[in-house]
């Protein structure tokens, strides 16, 4: 019986030190661009009249421009950013998008995560030049 517990303990120890992580290696992730990736996601899920679109976004606050979005971002810290907390339904913030609207897909959540972790830059793509 003791032999079983020793083997089980070793397996758990090795599993814990195998380098397994849920955080991606950002060195291998291509640069995410606000204008071609992030802005499109926000337009599809957030920027509606009466929500976060239109002129000023009303009470909810606008998410139309880069400057607007940066009010909800802590560059380099996705988990500390209100936008990321909201679309992943983590933290103390209200769930968004609200009921009746489609959730942000896991792939798009990942793109937003990477963009914030990369510094939430406004880098323009070749299409913006």
Describe the structure in brief.
The protein is built from five helices and no strands. It has 129 residues and is mainly α. The chain starts with a helix and ends in a 12-residue tail after the last helix.
What does this structure look like?
- There is one protein chain.
- The chain is mostly helical and 129 residues long.
- The protein has one domain (24-128).
- The protein has helices spanning 2-16, 34-45, 66-70, 82-87, 106-117.
- Helix 2 packs across helix 5 (106-117).
What attributes characterize this protein structure?
about 130 residues, mainly alpha, 5 helices
Count of separate DSSP helical elements? 5
Helix content: 25-40%
DSSP strand content: under 5%
Distance between the termini: 69 Å
Poorly predicted runs: 8-21
| Overall average residue pLDDT | 76
Rg, rounded, reads: 19 Å
Order of helices and strands: HHHHH
Question: How many domain regions?
Answer: 1
What is the 3D shape?
globular
Largest sheet: none
- Structural class by SSE content: mainly alpha
Report the strand count: 0
Q: Would you spell out the secondary-structure blueprint of this structure?
A:
Elements: H1 2-16, H2 34-45, H3 66-70, H4 82-87, H5 106-117
Helix pairs in contact: 2-5
């Amino acid at each position: 019986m003791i032999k079983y517990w020793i083997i089980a303990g070793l397996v758990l120890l090795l599993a814990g030190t195998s380098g397994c992580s849920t955080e991606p290696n950002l060195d291998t992730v291509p640069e995410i661009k606000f204008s071609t990736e992030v802005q499109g996601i926000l337009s599809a899920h957030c920027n509606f009249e009466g929500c976060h679109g239109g002129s000023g976004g009303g009470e909810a606050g606008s998410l139309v421009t880069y400057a607007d979005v940066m009010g909800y971002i802590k560059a380099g810290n996705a988990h500390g950013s209100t936008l990321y907390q909201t679309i992943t339904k983590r933290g103390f913030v209200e769930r968004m998008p609200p009921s009746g609207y489609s959730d942000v897909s896991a792939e798009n959540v990942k793109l937003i995560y990477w963009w914030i972790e990369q510094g939430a830059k406004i880098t323009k793509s070749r299409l913006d030049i």
